[in-house]
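step: validate -> pass
step: tokenize input -> pass
step: predict -> running
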Amino acid sequence: MRKVDIYELDFIIGGDSISGTVINAFTNIIKLLMDAGRSFGSSIRRVSEGSLCPLK
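step: predict -> pass
step: emit ->
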């Protein structure tokens, strides 16, 4: 393996543009949307079945 001098280090390109933080943020958004959909679907089901708790 040959040694790379300081000038050549400027031209080294590597790595991915998507980091773990970005992937984690997308995963959290997907989980949030799934939970919201589950809650919304559950509320629609409870209204249609008439199984709501009385407010008074």
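step: describe -> The radius of gyration is 26 Å.
step: cleanup -> pass
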